[in-house]
Design goal:
It contains five helices and no strands. By secondary structure, it is an all-alpha fold. The model has no long low-confidence stretch (mean pLDDT 93).
């Protein structure tokens, strides 16, 4: 039996991934960097870049590991929303929380039918 994958979830995962990359770079270089002039914290976007091709091509394995990776960005967003002094930085942390949660949920829910079908076929 063929798994029915949801293209809307795939589009959401793609949008959240690309949004998270733009947010990470923009936040640390221009919008509200930790130090004036930008910081090397912008490099936190690099692990996400490794997932772009696989997520855009809807590769299930890539979507699985990027879902787990997104939890690191969720944690960072929570910590920075709680601890940053700048109101702009707190707002950006809120956006990071929304994007990383959206990426996690979209990726997990997109992969779920394929995992269930594989489990049924194995049994």
């Amino acid at each position: 039996m063929e798994a029915k994958l949801n293209p809307g979830l795939h589009r959401l995962a793609c949008a959240c991934l690309l949004g998270l990359i733009v947010l990470c770079v923009g936040w640390e270089l221009w919008w509200a960097p930790l130090r004036p002039g930008g910081t090397l914290m912008a490099l936190k976007a690099v692990p996400l870049l490794f997932a772009v091709r696989g997520v855009l091509q809807a590769r299930l394995y890539t979507l699985q590991w990027v879902a787990m990776l997104s939890l690191l960005y969720l944690m960072e967003g929570i910590v920075r929303a709680w601890s940053d002094a700048s109101p702009l930085s707190v707002m950006l942390a809120g956006v990071e929380i929304v994007l990383s949660t959206g990426l996690y949920l979209a990726a997990i829910l997109y992969v779920r039918p394929a995992k269930r079908a594989a489990r049924r076929n194995r049994a």
